[in-house]
Write a structure and sequence with these properties.
The protein is an all-beta fold. It is built from one helix and 40 strands. It starts with a strand and ends with a strand.
Length: 465
């Protein structure tokens, strides 16, 4: 596996709530992109989902040139094969007990043709989810797209959105005894893309391009991104019932990544500077992943949270990437273009940091810094009711663009007279990397229990003429 590390400045934006100024609580400290490679003989691959144990599923080209579903655990990528007589398969979802779902073609013994059926795989056994009977003579198709920890599978059979129920001991094929159709009528086309442990499924009604959240026979349409709007897709849902996807904006016609905290509320997540974006998955911390066009025309994977907004996840050295899945730890999977132009399955390891208040040059409002100074710059990490500054491991602290270490271990005092102990440190100014024109500087580090933190304060450079 190849590793690519991305470091960048995280901007904290103030949010006003009533009369109070509240700063973001988490930020991105670091992103590492890992090339997951391919199955033997293949040149392209894509990762589609990751469970809380870090096991990953997707698809990869194999030596024959066909595409096969894979399961990756402990650094080993295993070929899941195909349904009987088939030559191609793709894995789309995995739950926390390593049940994998996807779709594969197989040989129809009646017609002699290849058809596509959803599958469920576990422990080396791949099972056909079947389709609508009489499937043998009409070549009915099915696609499994997401699975929850109870074994409920979201997908579609022909143009009917369905939820398969794998409880008990189902018979394969043609399909488990209980198939619950998510659309309001038997002939209304729909696709269910994802399902949570509460049995809520998210998907799209194809005839009128409306996203929905469904549970136990009750379908709730999702409010459009703009009044009287149409054309939206719902791709992911978390345990809170929050749904993500994309919504249409016009004029001009463009799609933006979209969050529905509930079916009646919608939020535009914006883009990375381009016209279009799409959200693909969401975890229970309301951290969202997907892809967005950039101002320069590339399509790049993103991660979004209310505290830091939409941030690029970068690539494996090429121009483009896309993210499709995220787990509870914030590990992200998808695909990326490499420096040589191949598309490879990708794991992004995102390091999150808690944002604490820092005060550069306490007592000063403008925080003047002369980059040419041979002296030191004082910086205080401010304690609060939520943070004990005594727990700061000063050996891990770094300040400024050049990540200067403290000139000494610092001392304890209440610099802002709020009743909480603060940690005061000093950094050699010329080691900080602050240059003329900089308007802010950041400090990073860890607590003794390994919690990452970051803080940013404004600066005004002086002595630069």
């Amino acid at each position: 596996m190849n590793y690519f590390k991305f470091t960048f400045l995280v901007l904290m934006l103030p949010v006003f709530t009533g009369a109070n100024l509240v700063w973001a609580e988490i930020a991105i400290g670091d992103i590492q992109a890992i090339d997951l490679g391919t199955l033997p003989g293949g040149s392209t691959s894509s990762a589609r989902d990751i469970n809380d144990a870090g096991n990953i599923v997707g698809s990869s080209e194999v030596l024959s040139g066909d595409t096969h579903a894979f399961f990756l655990s402990g650094g080993v990528m295993s070929d899941l094969g195909t349904l009987p007589g088939g030559d191609a398969s793709r894995a789309t979802g995995i739950n926390d007990v390593d049940q994998v779902v996807g779709f594969s073609n197989l040989l129809n013994p009646i017609t002699g043709e290849l058809v596509t059926h959803g599958f469920e795989w576990q422990g080396g056994v791949i099972r056909d989810l079947g389709a609508f009977p009489p499937e043998d003579d009409i070549n009915s198709t099915s696609f499994a797209r997401g699975i929850n920890n109870s074994g409920l599978i979201a997908g579609n059979i022909d143009l009917a959105g369905v939820v398969w129920d794998l409880s008990g001991v189902p018979t394969y094929p043609p399909f488990p005894p209980t198939v619950r159709v998510t659309d309001p009528g038997p002939f209304t086309p729909a696709i269910a893309f994802d399902i949570n442990d509460a049995g809520q499924a998210a998907g799209t009604l194809l005839s009128n391009a409306v996203g929905f959240r469904w549970q136990a026979g009750v379908l709730e349409p999702l409010v459009p991104l703009q009044p009287d709007g149409v054309d939206e897709d719902a791709y992911g849902i978390n345990e809170l019932g929050e749904v993500v996807g994309r919504g249409l904006l016009a004029p001009p016609v463009r799609y933006h990544a979209t969050l529905w905290p509930n079916p009646a509320t919608v939020q535009d997540l914006g883009t990375l500077g381009g016209e279009n974006s799409v959200a693909r998955d969401i975890n229970d911390e309301t951290t969202i992943v997907g892809s967005s066009e950039t101002a320069t025309g590339e399509t790049v994977a993103f991660i979004w949270h209310a505290d830091f907004g939409m941030q690029s996840l970068g690539t494996l050295g090429g121009a483009n990437s896309s993210a499709f899945g995220i787990n509870s730890a914030g590990q992200v999977v998808g695909e990326s273009e490499t420096a040589t132009g191949e598309i490879h399955a990708t794991l992004w390891m995102v390091t999150f940091a808690t944002v604490f208040d820092v005060d550069i040059k306490p007592g000063s409002n403008t925080n003047p810094i002369n980059p040419r100074s041979k002296g030191v710059t004082p910086v205080a990490v401010l304690g609060s009711i939520d943070f004990d500054a005594m727990q700061l491991d000063t050996s891990t602290v770094r300040f400024g663009p050049a990540e200067a270490p403290p000139a000494h271990n610092g001392h304890i005092e209440d610099v802002n007279n709020d009743g909480f102990i603060d940690r005061m440190m000093h950094f050699k100014t010329q080691q900080t990397g602050i240059v003329c024109g900089d308007t802010e500087a950041s400090l990073t580090g860890e607590t003794f229990d390994g919690e990452l933190f970051t803080g940013t304060d404004t600066v005004k450079t002086v002595g630069c003429k």
